[in-house]
Amino acid sequence: DAGVIQSPRHEVTEMGQEVTLRCKPISGHNSLFWYRQTMMRGLELLIYFNNNVPIDDSGMPEDRFSAKMPNASFSTLKIQPSEPRDSAVYFCASSLLAGTLSSYNEQFFGPGTRLTVL
Amino acid sequence: AQKVTQAQTEISVVEKEDVTLDCVYETRDTTYYLFWYKQPPSGELVFLIRRNSFDEQNEISGRYSWNFQKSTSSFNFTITASQVVDSAVYFCALSTSGTYKYIFGTGTRLKVLA
């Protein structure tokens, strides 16, 4: 079975440009997570979707960040305008959770998108 | 408060040595879940194991074994006869009942030298 798919794997852009990161979760999973990983802050949860509905976006840094999940097989994370401090690896993960607040099942991570904002 | 501590920032061993990665967690919840993930140099996060708070049995999977001790709030990971391919950053994570959120430790970088 295919795992979580993310694209692009690498993105280099200039400050002020719009960046869109894409994620295809594992088929049958009902929950999707976007994380950011930096050396300074480690792994941070940005937003969590359950059954395509955003449940918790408290980790989204600011209004420049937005995420959508139009259907069960696709999600995007957009940064507009991008800034150098957004440079990080962005991971998408999916899971099959029993409920909105279930923590039982493990999350499966995609390969990540390494974003560099110049 | 919930917290995961991986006190070992980096460990270097020679191939074929055994190595143990420590994980200490804090939570007041009685139902919780612990996880280990591996992040090899290629960058992806690979799920290794999940353990719930009611199951203190140790687990062995090939060269990997996990020792869960509620008395010391620890969930340690041992690699037997380490190999160069085991070189990676290993993360321990905690999730408590009633929340989907993972609390990750800061990771332990393992270097296995040939």
Describe this structure in words.
- The complex is a heterodimer of chains A (118) and B (114).
- With 118 residues, chain A is mainly beta.
- Chain A has strands at 5-7, 10-13, 19-24, 31-38, 42-50, 53-56, 65-71, 74-79, 88-95, 108-109, 113-117.
- In chain A, the strands form two sheets. In chain A, strands 2, 4, 5, 6, 9, 10 and 11 form a seven-stranded mixed beta sheet that branches.
- In chain A, strand 7 and strand 8 form a beta hairpin.
- Chain A starts with a strand and ends with a strand.
- The model of chain A has no long low-confidence stretch (mean pLDDT 93).
- With 114 residues, chain B is mainly β.
- Helices cover 0% and strands 54% of the residues of chain B.
- Chain B is built from no helices and twelve strands.
- Chain B has strands spanning 3-5, 10-14, 19-21, 24-26, 32-39, 46-52, 59-61, 64-69, 74-79, 88-96, 103-104, 108-113.
- In chain B, a hairpin with a 2-residue loop joins strand 7 (59-61) and strand 8.
- In chain B, 31% of the residues are buried.
- The model of chain B has no long low-confidence stretch (mean pLDDT 94).
- Chain A binds chain B through residues 31, 42-43, 45, 48, 50, 55-56, 89, 91, 93, 95, 97, 100-112, 114, and chain B through 32-33, 35, 37, 42-47, 50, 52, 91, 95-102, 104, 106-107.
**Biggest interface between protein chains, with counts per chain?**
A-B, 27 and 24 residues
Uncertain parts of chain A = none
Give me the number of helical elements of chain B.
0
Based on Cα principal axes, name the global outline of chain B.
globular
- Derived from helix and strand composition plus strand pairing, the structural class of chain A reads mainly beta
Order of helices and strands of chain B: EEEEEEEEEEEE
Task: For the record, give the distance between the C-alpha atoms at the N and C termini of chain A, rounded to a whole number.
Answer: 36 Å
- Rounded Rg of chain A: 14 Å
| Share of helix of chain B, binned | under 10%
Shape of chain A: globular
The major β-sheet of chain A equals: 7 strands, mixed
End-to-end CA span of chain B: 41 Å
Beta fraction of chain A: over 45%
Strand count, sense and closure of the main sheet of chain B?
Answer: 6 strands, mixed
